[in-house]
Every structure is written in C-alpha cells, then in structure tokens.
Amino acid sequence: MTSTLSAGTGNASAPAWRQFSFFDPETVKDIHGLNSSPEIFKATLEISTVASSSAGVLVADIHGSIHLLNKDFESISSWVAHSGGRVTHMVERKGILVTLGEENVIQSPLIKIWDLGKKDKRTTAPLLLRSAKVQPSNRPHPVSTVALSSNLSHLAIGLGDGTVLIYRHLDQSLASSGSLTALPKPRTIHESPTEPITGLGFREPIPQSFNHASDATPKHSREPTDHNNPNLYLFIVTTNRVLVYQASGRGTGSSAATAVDEIGAALGCAVMSEFNMIVARDEAIYMCAIEGRGNAFAYEGNKSAVHIHSSYLVIVSPPFVASASAASATIRNFVRTTGDDTSEISKVTVFDPANKFVAYSGTFTQGVREIISAPWGDLYILSNNGELVHLVEKPTSAKLDMLYKRSLYGLALNLAKTQNLDESHVADIHRQYGDHLYSAKNDYDGAMAQYMKTLGWVQPSYVIRKFLDAQRIHNLVTYLQELHTRGLANSDHTTLLLNTYTKLKDVSRLDSFIRTESKPSREESLAPDELPFDLDTAIRVCRQAGYFEHAGYLAKKYERHEDYLRIQIEDAGKYSEALLYLRKLGMDAAEGNLARYGRALLSNLPEETTELLIDLCTTTSITTLGVIDNMGEETPISAVSRSTAGGASYLSYLSLNRNTITGQTSETATIAAPSVKTARVETDGDTIKSSGNLNSDDVSGTPRNVSPPPTASSTIPIAPLSAPPKEAPLKRLSPRLYFAHFVDHMEQFVVFLETVALRRWGQSADEKSQKHSLNSDLLSSDSDNDEEDRRDQVAVWNTLLELYLTLPQISSSFMSSTPQDEIALREKALRVLRSQTIPYDTMHALILCSSRGYTQGLVLLWEKMGMYEDVLRFWMERDKEGATPEASMQVLKHLELYGPTHPHLYTLVLRFLTSSPELLSRHMADVKQVIQHIDQEGIMPPLGIIQVLSRNSVASVGLVKEWLIERIRRERAEIQADHEWVSSYRMETATKLKQVEELSDPEHPKVFHVTRCSTCGGQLDLPSIHFMCNHSYHQRCLPDNDTECPNCAREHGVIREIRRNNEQLADQHDLFVSEVQEGGFKALANAFSRGLFNQSRLETIAA
C-alpha cells in the first residue's frame, strides 16, 4: 500500500485530477424480495456500526446485537453481545472479534472478545473468551476509536478524553485458560484532555522479503524511508496532531508518543493504510509515516469519513446543498440531470492515490450511512434510507480501453502495474503506446523506446518492419542491439544487425558488438553465460562482408577451430597464424583440421607444416606435444575417416604418374628443396634429437625460413628397458590421413615418411641408422598389438618404397642434406626389401619392382616369397632376350640354390637347356648332370625324360645313349628279380593250398609223428596235446589249458590284426580316394592286395 498511496505529489495547489468511471453503481436487492433492499438494512437508523471480517460482514445495532452476513447479505448468525446496551466499535483479526459497547447496568464501556470459529453450546453464539470494563479512571469516558494488531498481540483503545490505552500480549492472555475478566493490565500511553482521540492504527513490522523488494523500488524524494523498521508502531490521531508510539522492540515503553505531524483530523477522517496513517482534511489528504509527514494530495472539500478499499481511498463528504456552479463536475451533472438545487446530497469519491486519478465519483441524496469494504473484495455504500449500492469495478481490460481512447498510455502503464498485471499485458500496452507514437505523433525515438520494453513478448519482426527505412536505421540498430543484449535474437536478427553495421561502416560499434562478453542473464528465459548473439551467423556475416579480422576474433575466442582456420586460410591467407593456432589445439582437433587444410598449408609453408605433421604422428602424449588442451569440451570439426585397408599403397592416390617421369626434363623433375633441418633426426645411442617440436617456444605468426637449432628442450629421450612404467600414452594419429596432401610436395613427403617411421617405430632405410639399430620394440611398445598401428607401418613403408623407386632424385633426405640420385634411392629401396623388421606389403613391392624394372628387388622378393620358379623363369626370359649373356649361368646358379628343396625345378631347367642348340652346346655337361640327378632322385620317370628331350629336334639320342643303356640294364635286373619273387610266392601259395586241402579232407585222418614237446623239447608222454599245425605239447606245458597253439598264436594274431585293419580301411573312402590321387595305379594295386575289392566283403557291407 505504501508504494501506491505514497506516489502523489506535494504540490499545494489543487490539480484537476483526471476522472474516470471505473465503477458502475448497482442497487443491491434482497435475495427474497427483489423490490427492496436487504432485510437487515431496512432499519438503518438502528445500525450502530458495520465492520468487515474474515467470516463475513458484521452489523451491530443499538440494541446490542451483532449480525454476521454472507455475500447475499443474509444473516447467518446473530447474537446479543451487549445486553441492554449498544455496540459502538468492532474489529476482527484471525477469527477473533473484539467488541466495545455500553450496557445499561454498567457505566464504563465494556470490552468483549469473541471466537467466531467456535460456538457456545448453550446459546449457539460465538464463544465469549473475555469480558472486562474499560475504566482507566474513576470517571468513565466513551470510546472513540479502537485498533488491533494483525497477530492479536496488541489492542489499543482511544477515549474521548484524549486517553489511549494499550493491552500488551493479548494473544498470550487469550491462549491461557482463565476467567472471563482475565485481560492484560492496560497501560496508558497517551493523555491529552483537550484533544480527543479520532484515529488509531498499527503499522505492522515489515517482512524481510518485502524489505528487499522495496529497496529496489525507486522512492519519491518526500517518501519516508522507514520501511526497513521491524518494530510495531501505533499511530495516534487527535483533532490537532498525529503521534507515533513504539509498541514493540528495543526501547518499548521508555518514551511517550512523539508527534510526527501538527495536523489532526475529525472523527472518522483518519484511516490506516498498510504502512501510513492517512489523514483527511478539508484542504488535502496527508500521509504520515513514523518518521514524519509523507506525500500529500491536494483535494479540497469537506470530508466526513475516509475508508480504505484495496488500493483505493474512499472519501465521503458530509451532506450539502447542490449548486449548478459547484466546482465539482459530479455536482453540476447532478443538478443538470435532476434540476434539484435545494436538496442536500452526499458525495462519494473513489480516489487512486498511486495513479493520481478519480476512479469514481457519485452523489447520494439520502446521505451515506456506511462504507462497506466486503471481505470478498467488493465495495458497498449504505445510504441513510437503507438502500445498499454496490460499486462494481470494471475489469482491467475495460479500464485500459477507456485510457486507450483518451491516449493516456502512461496512465495505462501505471494502472497495469498497480493492478499487478503480468508482463505480457504490460508489454501489450507498451506496444500500443509505441504504435500511437509511431503513427499519430511521428515520434520514432519515443516509439522505439516503447518497443524496447516489449522485448520478449512482441515478435521482433513486428517492430523491425517499421524501421527498415534508411531514415530510421539508427533506431533499428538500437532495437537489434537490445534484442541481442537480452539474448532474444536469432540468426536472422544477427545477420540484419551486422549487415547494418557494415553498411553504415560503423566499425567501432561492430567491434563493441562482437567483443561483448557472455554474462549471466537476468532473464529467466536465458541460460547462464549465453552469448547475446548467434555465433555462427556473426562469423558468417563478417566473412561475407570482408571483416575477416572480426570473424577470426569470434572464432578464436569461442573456440570455433574449424571456422577460425577456414577464415585464416581461405579468406585472409594468414597461413602462419593458422599453423600457430593448430599447434595450440588438442590432437583430435588438429587431426581433423590438418586433414582438411594440410594441402593449402603445405603449399605455402611446406617446412613448418611438415614439421607439425611429423610431431602429431609421432607424439604419444599431450605433455610431449606441448598442447594447450583447452578444447576438450567442444570439437566442432568433423574427423576424417580412416582407411581400413592395411598395407595398401597410398601413392597411387596422389596422381604421381600424371606426367611420365622418363619424359621430364631436369627442370621439371627438380622439386624445390625444403629446409630439411626441420625434420632431420640424428641418432646417437638411445637418443633422438629433433629440431622440430611442438614444445618450441619460438613460434611466431610469420613464416620461418630458418629453423632454430636443436635445443635441450626439444630432445625426446627414449626410456631404457628398465624404466618404470609411465602413464598410458594417448593414441597417436595415423599418418595415412595426410598422404594426399603431399601430392605436389614429394620431397617433403619423403621427409615426412622417413621421420615418422624412425621416431614412431625406430625403423629406417638409412645405412647409418641401421648400424645403430634403434630398438623398435621400445619405441612401439604401446602398439605391438595394435592392428591399426600395424596398418600404418605397412602404409608408410609401401609408400616410401614406391617413392624410392619412382622419384628420379631428391635434393635432400632426412639423414643428410646432400642430394640423392636414382641409384641412392634404389639402394634405400633394396635395404627396405632386405630388412627383416620393416613391414611392407610384399605383393605390392613385387608389382613396383616389376613395373619399374628393378631386377635386384624382383629377385629378392621372389626369394623371400618362395617363388623360386619365377626367379628361374626371369633369367630364362632374359636369356631369350639376349640382353644378359650370363642369364643361363644364373639359371644354373639358382638351380643349385633352390633345387635341393624344390626338385621340380630340375625339370624346368632341363626344358630350358634343351630349348635351343646354342644353350645345349654351351651346357652339354650340365644337361647330363641334370638328367642324372632327375633319374637318381626319381623326379621324373625315364619315359618322361625321353618325352621332354624328344619334344623338339635339339637333343639327339647320342646325348642320352649311355644313360639309356644303363637305365635299361637296371630295368632288366629289376624285372628278373620280380619274376623270381613271383615264382616264390606261387610255390608258397601252392603249399598252403595243399595243406588246407589235407586238413579239410574228412576221409583221411591226420597222423602225428612228432615225438617231442614243442615247448620243453622233452619226450612226449601221456597226456599230450597235438595241434593240426604239427606242433605237440605236454599237457602240463600248455598254460591254462589253452586251445590254440602257442607257437602259431602270435603269427595268427598278426594276420588277424592286418585283416581287421584292412576291413576298417575299406570303409574309409576319403582316404582311399586321396591315396589314388597321389599314387594312382600303385594305390589301386595295394588296395587290391589288401582285399579291399573282395566281392564277399562288398556283399557283407551291403547286407
């Protein structure tokens, strides 16, 4: 209430307050009879007082009764409060009603306290808590006014003799059980016999939350600053003064009431607002705070009563005779409409002190009895004739429409704030105010000031369209800046603002805009630390307008790595700054960006870029790389996909063969020599020293023509095998990502590949490096089982091998600065092919050596791959070409090397040596040795040898005459031996068949002629046992009465085992087929001899 009631002016003149009809009077009818006022108000003259309570409207009469009315003004409860007397005053807080009245039997006023929430079981009236006399002295005086604090702690009573009584701790007294008369002893805090008390009011302690809110509210220069006082104060109004008494807190009771204003008020003309005592006098309305008089409102005229209703002040004038010449327009209208200028009327004015206008003004011919501010928020006026008028307040929208029609937009804004409208409605008022200034007043600056207050509620496009003209572009800039400051701009708004800056050439404002720091927003709709503009749009627009420095500043500041590099490389051409920035990135960010911009950097800064690529591919930790890794939260770059084909050559993708090397002149074949110091590596024991390192502090924004010499800070020590385990290193970048960038920089490509191979895996094709034989296992211990790292090694060496065999020469290498010709490069290639530790794709190397005509490499690879026949055929082809005279000798030489382990090569060489008369004439003895070796080792049958020699007319019979004679002799001897074996087998078979026949003939009994035991050799005696195999034994010599001859049992067991094995083999068809495929007819003969084809066996299987 303070903020609203204290917003007036202290001007002593009576201004013409704006007057509106924000209330519509409606007569209230009785709910049971619509032709009359409510029944309770028909006897208006008997009503002594009316008060509002939380339970309803309380009406007391002169008979001492109290009636509790509902919203329809029906009595819901009635009881006699003061028997035989009347109720003079009523006040209610928290359901506790305090009444003051008179009774005939008692001279002093009586105070009674009721609990409206509880009923007396006997009378059904509210429960009476206390009843006592108000008797400060022997001479009783009537009560003029009463006040009760909101928490029931203090009760103040003012008497007609100028005495003020206060009851302390009333709430505690009511909470304790006691007699009806047990009230705290009243204390007289003020006495003024000549000044009756006309008003009392408690100023409640201010809640702490309200203190903070009020601190932020700008105060009028004359407004008291007592809102932070946490004590309870009592305002005392007399006819001549306004006093304040401290009722609680430190110093309570130590001092009397102090005067704060030397003006008083008549009875009923003082009312307590939330924080101030309002005093109505004929000349003005004054507001008094505990520190003194506050604001005053000039409102002349007699006043009989003032009341508070919500934020309004209701002023009632005493009856007076209307006049057509009255200063009040309400009185003049009354006379004009009724023509009555002789009757007395009363005027009721509803004043809004916060907004300084009259919300309602009306006349009542019968006089005003009471002003009722109902607890449900409505305002009623009770006339002396019992008529009840309801002042219906119009909705806020209707009020605003009335103000809009009169173009009172400022007043509409004040009204919206006092009515606590939400921000959207307030913003709509600002919008309409802005439209009014724009269209009707052509006040574009003022209109923009109003539109600025609609941010967040009105679509920005609504405002922007109005200010697109060139004359209003400055207003548009102001609006767009505020839109970005509040974080409400989108990319289109950012584009428009930046385009406006660039068209105006306003570089200073552009600088100020893009250098705006992100700061926590006060708007709830914005996230903390959010930029006031769309970063992507700002960068894009600055680039399009040619403000590369501004775009680069934004990209660098907000860690848009990809955008920053694109600006520096594609737009500004500042390659050195881009390379310096890449050194500060983390590995992941540098990886993707170098994959994208590596070619452009190599074209402009080949040495520095190669150095950086080497460091990225060989560094295993952030500490070694020297990276300022503050980019971990955001990596906007898109990583380049890695190839998964291990061992493939990547040089084919570089279009190296776009021009034939053989057709190049020395000028076209020569490549610009890089400063190889940036990548040269010197090996000394177990230490690798590199002058190009990302830890280097000497990094400037200009290209470096001369690299700094190696320093101690750039030394990368290799830990010994016994070193303690370190923290797990990060994964190193794959060098394959950057192969394509070296398409026009072959020498840097060689430097890059050789240095990466040495630093990363300890592998080198250089002779000096191989002598020192760095421990590759130590360097690559973290990736021995890493398949990806293995593919990287293969790709690096495949490409290096191709470069060695492809380039005609290079100016320098990573191990020396002296130029290297084709011979030196091919020697390196040969060392790579011979190495047992360097991984490369053998098949790819074979194709390279073949396509480049590198004979040494071809032979070496064929030998490593076991392709010995290809080695022989290669020399055979060379002999046919005639370019290599010693080709045939190389064939024989390699046959001696490979023949013992690969016998089939002899057949190939035999065909070669007998392919031409010249070869045969030169190698006659060699041919005979080859034939002899083939025959001895059984590599080919004699018929096969004859067929080979007889395929052409080169070899004659005389060449193999001696060998044939010797071979025929050996064959005849073998045939004769075979005949003898056949005869012996036939005789043995005939003997066996005869024996079987004799044993199976039942007509001829077997006669045993054996006389000695086959076991012990002694003379046979009875009992003896004879077997059909002609073996006889003593019965005692046979173990366990065995029924089988012991001498024949072993032989028969072997035969049975053989037959059982043969039967099992008969079912293993896969084994039989494989034997036939290997042995042919010999396998069939063996199978037949083992009985695998026995018909009876087949029948058994079929059964």
From TrEMBL:
Pfam families given in the database record: PEP5_VPS11_N, TPR_PEP5_VPS11, VPS11_C, zf-C3H2C3
Catalytic activity as recorded in UniProt: S-ubiquitinyl-[E2 ubiquitin-conjugating enzyme]-L-cysteine + [acceptor protein]-L-lysine = [E2 ubiquitin-conjugating enzyme]-L-cysteine + N(6)-ubiquitinyl-[acceptor protein]-L-lysine
Stored InterPro entries: CHCR_PEP5_VPS11 (IPR057308), Clathrin_H-chain/VPS_repeat (IPR000547), PEP5_VPS11_N (IPR057307), VPS11 (IPR016528), VPS11_C (IPR024763), WD40/YVTN_repeat-like_dom_sf (IPR015943), Znf_RING (IPR001841)
Compositional bias segments (type: Low complexity): 773-782
Swiss-Prot/TrEMBL CHCR repeat ranges: 451-610
Occurrences of domain RING-type (ranges): 1013-1048
TM ranges: none
Family to which the UniProt record says this protein belongs: Belongs to the VPS11 family.
The protein's name in its UniProt record: E3 ubiquitin-protein ligase PEP5
Organism field: Lentinula boryana
